[in-house]
Amino acid sequence: MLASLDDTITQSGLSRPRYLLAHWQTQRLARSYADLAASERYAPATEFFLADLYAPRDFSRRDQDGERVVAKMRALLPARAMAAIQSALHLNRLSQQLDIGMADMLFGEMGVADIDEVNYAEAYRRCKQFAARREQIVLVDALGHELDAVVKKPLVQLALKLAHGPAHLAGLGELQDFLERGVAAFLHMRGAEVFLATVRERESSILARIEAGEPQPFRLDG
């Protein structure tokens, strides 16, 4: 089992602390949004968030691709699409900074062996990044609304389809596949307002509970 975990961590491209933190956070999100994952309408978007935004993997190649796209494609892509890409990159940079701080706090300063709800919430409080956490929630919500608007534009969908081959040939395949999965997930929802409002309200409530020192901040039944 240990060897298998070590292999998984190596394959993820993350350090052991970052992998264990990301894995725990992904499992927490899966529990918090199990109802959306069970919904035919919202399951693809939930999977996209868990697998493409929060999975315990190193997304640095994809994010480097994104920086290249912003630099090279600004004049070619619709403004709304560029705004969505830039928002995604901003969100990822902030999330990485917060995760590095949390991993250092948990496995360094606090010296935990395994993450649980209690020590995770304590690390949150010790990091004192509540303003940045609120910004993170705002960015997730804004990005979701931008994607919801972008995927409804036929021109953007056509541009994405036409870019598939050239993107892979140019070494931008990982970002291309990420965008295609996101577009498919948001198109499937036929409107993302309920999904995004649910995420916004739950994450804001959880953040407030952690800040208030509640013993079980991730409970959704009040």
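Second entry:
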Amino acid sequence: MKVLRFPDPRLRVKARELKVIDKEVRKIFGQMKELMYEEDGIGLAATQVGVDLRFFVFDLSKEERKPQVVINPFIISKSEEKIVFEEGCLSIPGLKVPVERSKKIVVKWIDEKGNEIQKELTELESVLFQHEIDHLEGKLIIDKLPEEERKRIIKEIVGI
């Protein structure tokens, strides 16, 4: 398993709902957690490894290694108040993009044990969830850039 790099077209695939958490899917959860750590990331969406299912793994715990799996996430509400973070992406190494997102969101999802969770997230956790959910929709941080800047960066990355 490896992280797909832009401009791989599979990064633009909209993920399908994950309906069954079976042995095969649990194996993918484990592989993605390890890959996220190997790549020094804090989040990794299934679509970033070529799996078109609606889930991602993340870990904001720093050294403790407390990875979590978020299945079929759904944003219930977003705050009007915004926050801007310099976001990076494992699929576009070396690129940092200032992205404006909602400061607070309320999200519903299923954890890897099958429990339904609903939680209000703020700051970095809110930004991380919005970033990973974008991946599940086939959207990338590069899409947040103004058109001219996006074209210039794509040219640099693709080498055209």
